[in-house]
Amino acid sequence: MKRHWQRAFLAALEQTGSVTESAAAAKIGRITAYDTRRADPAFAALWDQALDVAANTLEDEARKRAFAGSDVLLMFCSKACDHKSGANHARLSRQRNSTR
């Protein structure tokens, strides 16, 4: 990476999924981050990977809470997964009921 701030930005992006918070952690402006993303395909790829990590972490936590008894989160997880398969709601409900 060419710029010293990129490592801090990407680490924060993995943790938060927020460009605003990541830019603040790296002590840069959001515009600098977006301009660099447009100009540097390697950085853009790392950015996408960091967002994937953040999304997976959020999904894991939501699933854990849904199975622990949050009906609202169970519905959210089910709806978020519907684009993958229409059977997700039934699968999630069965998994949740089997943990009780």
Give the structural class: mainly alpha
How many domains is the backbone divided into? 1
Tell me the helix content.
over 70%
Tally of helical segments = 6
Mean pLDDT: 81
Strand content: under 5%
Shape: elongated
User: Strand tally, please?
Assistant: 0
Q: Which H/E pattern describes the elements?
A: HHHHHH
Largest sheet: none
Radius of gyration: 18 Å
**Low-confidence segments:** 83-88
Give the termini distance in whole angstroms.
48 Å
Offer a few descriptive terms:
single chain, 100 residues, mainly alpha, 78% helix, elongated
Folded structure, characterized:
With 100 residues, the chain is an all-alpha fold. The chain is built from six helices and no strands. Helix 1 packs antiparallel against helix 2, helix 1 (6-16) runs parallel beside helix 4 (41-67) and helix 3 packs across helix 4. It is elongated, with a radius of gyration of 18 Å. It has one domain (6-98). The chain has helices at residues 6-16, 19-26, 30-39, 41-67, 71-81, 88-98. The relative contact order is 0.10.
